[in-house]
Specification:
This protein is of the alpha+beta class and about 70 residues long. It contains 2 helices and 4 strands.
Length: about 70
């Protein structure tokens, strides 16, 4: 018998839950971080840097040559 779990949540919704937007409009990461202090977000089964995931979720693919 196939076990039915809950459907996967939208990554954008999960991401938004992990930020606080300050009065000046800055997005402050309030979730887990890598040891170097960068925000960490699990996307497609892999831990990734939150600032890069943010770009991908809200602006699209990161262009070649952009770091």
């Amino acid at each position: 018998m196939k076990q039915v779990g809950r459907p996967p949540r939208n990554p954008k919704d999960r991401f938004i839950e992990k930020i606080n937007i300050s009065e000046n409009g800055c997005w402050l990461w309030i979730a887990g971080k890598f040891t170097d202090g960068y925000g960490q977000f699990q996307l497609y089964g892999k831990p990734q840097r939150a600032h890069r995931v943010s770009w991908q979720l809200f602006r699209g693919p990161i262009p070649d040559g952009i770091q």
